[in-house]
Amino acid sequence: MRLLHLADLHLGKTVNGFSQTDDQRHILHEALRIAQDESVDAILLAGDLYDRSSPSAEAVSLLDGFLTRAADLGIAVLAIPGNHDSAERVAYAAGPLSRQGIYLAPAFDGSVRRVVLEDEHGPVAFWLLPFLKPASVRCFFPEADIGQDYTAALRTVLASCALDAAQRNVLLCHQFVTVGGAAPDRTDSELSLGGLDNVDASVFDAFDYVALGHVHRPQRVGRDQVRYAGSPLKYSLSEARDRKSAVLVDLGPKREGERCAVRIELAPLEPLRDLRRITGPLAELVSDEVVRSADANDYIHAVLTDATPVIDALARLRAAYPNVMSMEYAAQSRAADTSPAPDRGEAPQESPFELFERFFEERNGFPLTTRQAQRVRHVLEYAEEDA
């Protein structure tokens, strides 16, 4: 059986104020082209289908179009919600959709949905595990010793699954997975991941392939068959040099007492617009030679090496590159990197809300609105209750 593993679509996302709708529509077409060209039997979507729990109409339309086209091509789709998704919204109409070969994980109710597909080697059981926190698990397994331990929570849930070791078993999972405490390679947008939310890869030992989502760089975790697909697009500057891909997975036959043979290949995904960094003096960066050396419509982060600030620098850059996302001066950046850290010894303790409020203003240049502040307080209160 041939699978195409994708994750972290984040449909509806904006990056530095730029809507990614057209880019996401293009990359979904790319994924379907690969699936068709490679005679894929099923597409695995390992969470964060949307960028927020209440997705925009445009984002819903993007996913609807993707699922409709996959069904028209006779390609099954199996999908789980990630931490950015609303599990209930993702599961909407799961019953009728399953008759079209679209299988969606339900909101967690103590059990894990199992979907069985067949090929020439027999059945393959797919287990659709939504993003979970220990608190979501404890209420269904009150006798288990879980506490705040993510590994214990997932081990408990997966132990309750009636796996047939003679069959091939594939898990879809959206968690922060580590090996012996060693974290996967993260991007700037994911540096908050890790710590209490670690799940040790040993909990997946019974599965022949584990399709992971949550981390935006494609990589194996421990063994080749436990793998992050990564996001299909570059959603932060730290990904500028990355190559995005989808994972092609071939499941072979399974011998008794062994995992099935699995062959893995990364299929490159070509974006509508790349995200890249350009560095140099302004006059050079806006010269015809440099502008024409690559696609001027790419998303650009410009680092100017001019000794002093240049009047209308951003306007001149945008005249040459319509999609300049950000601009900085190399000299100022170096000064910021080498300046001593402020002495926080006498600083008063800040509440989580105050820390977020300051972080938001520093990053965006304007404060939270009253409505945003109310929402942040509500989320923090919910998190404290959950803890």
Q: Major beta sheet, specifics?
A: 6 strands, mixed
Q: What proportion of the residues is helical, as a percent range?
A: 25-40%
**With helices defined by DSSP (H or I, 4 residues minimum), what is the helix count?**
12
Taking Cα atoms only, what radius of gyration do you get, to the nearest Å?
23 Å
Oligomeric state of the chains present here: single chain
Percent of residues in beta strands? 15-25%
User: Which strand order does the major sheet show?
Assistant: 6-5-4-1-15-16
Anisotropy-based shape: globular
Low-confidence runs: 341-348
- Could you tell me the mean pLDDT? 90
Name the structural class.
alpha/beta
**Strand count:** 19
Through-space gap between termini: 41 Å
Description of the structure:
The chain is an alpha/beta fold and 387 residues long. Helices cover 29% and strands 25% of the residues. The chain contains twelve helices and 19 strands. The protein has a six-stranded mixed β-sheet with strand order 6-5-4-1-15-16. The two termini are 41 Å apart. The relative contact order is 0.11.
Feature tags:
387 residues, six-stranded mixed sheet
Annotate the secondary structure layout:
Layout: E1 2-6, E2 14-15, E3 18-19, H1 21-37, E4 42-46, H2 57-72, E5 76-80, H3 87-90, H4 94-98, E6 102-104, E7 113-119, E8 122-128, H5 134-138, H6 150-159, E9 168-174, E10 176-178, E11 198-200, E12 209-213, E13 219-221, E14 223-228, E15 245-251, E16 262-268, E17 275-280, H7 282-285, H8 288-291, E18 299-304, H9 313-320, E19 324-329, H10 330-338, H11 352-364, H12 370-386
Parallel strand pairs: 1-4, 4-5, 5-6, 8-9, 9-12, 10-11, 12-14, 17-18, 18-19
Antiparallel strand pairs: 1-15, 2-3, 7-8, 13-14, 15-16
